[in-house]
Amino acid sequence: MSPVQSSPEARRTRRQDAVLAAAVTVVTLGVVVLEVRLIRTDPSVALSDAQAWALGVLSCAQAVLLVGLRSRPVVTLAAVAACQVVLVAAVPDIAAHGIALLIAAYTVGAHRPVRAVLGVAVPAVLLEAVTAAAAAWGRPDAWTIVGSQAGSAALAYGGAAFVGSYVASRRRERELERLSARAQIAAQRERAETAVAAERGRIARELHDVAAHHLSGMIVQAAAVDRLIGRDDDAARSGAAWIRSQGKATLENLRQVVGLLRDDAGVDGNAPVPGLEALETLVEEARRTGTDVVLERTGGAVRLPPIADISCYRVVQQALTNVRQHAPGAAARVRLTYGPRDVELEVVNGPAARAPAKLAGGGGSGLIGMRERAGLIGADLAAGPADDGGWRVRLRLPVSPDDGRVGAGHIETGDPR
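That's the histidine kinase sequence above. Prediction below.
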């Protein structure tokens, strides 16, 4: 006995089939007894005792054969069909197909392909017709008997198998619907996880841009204040006041970041999110931290969508932060150009005048954030070394001349910074 056949599931199936066979046998026996009594009340139908016994024994034998219904459905149907052929030979006048045959044909139709049903049903119908013709040979109603037996057989096999096939088809459809629903739920979960990851990245970029810009300047200024203590107290106090103001600005900007992340439109009436209009303030802050920065504006200002406006601002902010961290003492130029079809930002700095300080938290995340911001708004971003040994960051944002909508661009970067 194979492991599959001896499995708990197989044993449970055999027990269920045995119970079904016993129940069908009892019901079949009762039906046969009732049928024999009814037939014998009709004087036009002759039914001998031998035929009555044959009807009862063969019908019950068909029911008993159901013990192998689900383990060997096709074999079971073939055995039941063989009993039916013998029954037709013994009692050709009764064109009856019992419960067992209907159950067997239904099961094969539900669990096996159509060719399996046809492989048993077609020969069985033909054999029943031939057997009926042989048994009724010479009788005036022979063709009536043959037609009755063949028609009853075709209806029994075909009808039961069709119902089984239909039920199985509906079951498969429900299973496919269930699997499809599971797939949709999984896809929705994946989209939600992707959205969460994207939102985390967005939060990380905002926090990096705000914290890196202000805190790097505060670190530089704090070092200067430390050197001035005891030598120039007024300058030290001025530097400390500036650090305090930058701390407040950092806190305010972090609040603005939270407001932006809560409102996709970027609109907060109580604390406006900085955009290109705030470049003057941004450049002034960079100057106060020791960076020589020049701001150039060209063309008439274009109103950008909030997400594009703040993204452009953050790119300039990060570029100036990179100048302060990686090229201390270098002069920088911020150029903002409003064209008829695009807005172009360029931040260029010369080579470092002294070795950069080692600040914790580096690793190229600033440039990564600029790339992601450019991709978010459909802008072209190019970042790489300048001819004089400095660094250049250029962002070009396509803009519709009609309504200020931004377009699509590409990203081109040099070495991570």
